[in-house]
Design brief:
Largest sheet of chain A: none
Oligomer: heterodimer
Number of domains of chain A: 1
Number of strands of chain A: 0
CATH topology of chain A: Non-ribosomal Peptide Synthetase Peptidyl Carrier Protein, Chain A
Order of helices and strands of chain B: EEHHHEEEHEHEEH
Helix content of chain A: 40-55%
Largest sheet of chain B: 8 strands, mixed
CATH class of one domain in chain B: Alpha Beta
CATH architecture of one domain in chain B: 3-Layer(aba) Sandwich
CATH topology of one domain in chain B: Aminopeptidase
Distance between the termini of chain A: 26 Å
Largest interface: A-B, 17 and 24 residues
Number of helices of chain A: 4
Mean pLDDT of chain A: 88
CATH class of chain A: Mainly Alpha
Helix content of chain B: 25-40%
Number of helices of chain B: 6
Chain lengths: 82, 195
């Protein structure tokens, strides 16, 4: 796995930890099933944090695809421009 | 509100249980009384019915979760040990052994506690066991709570529909279409073993 992808995963995991107020590390393979804190309220907070990080609103098809650290890392890898 | 003079489908009207809730089948008269005050609950008329102000009685009759107990079934989501519903879950049967779901949690104390997810897991298992092969879902893209529910249940996002629907003020809406096929559900983490 490239260093760049790892860096996106680290960034995504840190963003989830911040959005969900998780003390400690979030694993790179974590998803909405494995993280008990990933409930509907925190999901909204997470989407807002992702938009802030990307510097743009999420597109509809992106909103429906966010379910794991890796799905967020893929968004970061896709860049910030719409 | 559509009432049909057909025999009720009793297999699909069964009371179901989840770890925290009893899913109690309800009839149209209970919904008519709007016991959860859905007409005036902002996050319900806004997110579920895409309205900017409370629903009129006519609006409620037109789009409320009225069951006909033949193709449309509504369950009250009632916490164990209590009698009052915190929300309602509706399933509508469609052609080709398909169905779709709608749910709303009107009790503010239960929002964000995955009540819909828990209820729907039990409901999907029940309907898949009774001949449904596919559940579909259409949700407005900014209804993050509903999008969350579909993703948490493992639905696949199959399409984005841009501008097919509009808000009352004319602004176009984008919808996300989701799908859950029985074979995928049975391989997933929420499938219940055959009883």
């Amino acid at each position: 796995m490239s260093t760049e992808i790892l860096s996106h995963e680290t960034r995504a995991a840190a963003l989830i930890a911040r959005a969900f107020n998780i003390q400690g590390e979030v694993a790179a393979d974590a998803d909405m099933l494995s993280l008990p804190a990933w409930d509907s309220m925190n999901h909204v907070t997470l989407l807002l944090e992702i938009e802030k990080e990307l510097g743009r609103p999420l597109r509809p098809e992106e909103v429906g695809g966010i379910d794991s650290v890796r799905s967020i890392a893929r968004l970061f890898a896709g860049g910030a421009s719409p | 509100m559509r009432l049909r003079l057909k025999p009720p489908n009793r297999d699909l009207m069964t009371e179901l249980e989840t770890p925290r809730f009893i899913l109690r089948p309800v009839g149209p008269l209970e919904i008519l009384r709007d016991p959860g005050d859905w007409r005036r609950t902002e996050w319900i008329y806004r997110d579920l019915y895409l309205q900017e102000r409370p629903l009129s009685l006519v609006g409620w009759l037109k789009c409320g979760p009225f069951p006909d107990q033949f193709r449309r079934f509504t369950s009250a989501i009632v916490p164990r040990g209590e009698s009052r519903a915190i929300g309602y879950h509706m399933v509508t049967l469609q052609r080709g052994n398909s169905a779709s779901c709608t749910a709303g949690i009107h009790d503010a104390a239960w929002r964000g506690k995955d009540a819909t997810v828990e209820a729907r897991i039990r409901i999907l298992n029940h309907y898949f066991r009774h001949g449904i092969e596919r559940f579909t879902g259409k949700v407005e893209a900014t209804n993050f709570a509903s999008v969350f529910t579909y993703r948490k249940l493992g639905y696949t996002q199959v399409a984005t529909v841009r501008g097919e629907r509009h808000r009352p003020d004319g602004r176009p809406l984008d919808d996300l279409l989701f799908e859950m096929r029985k074979e995928d559900w049975m391989r997933g983490p929420h499938a219940e073993p055959d009883r």
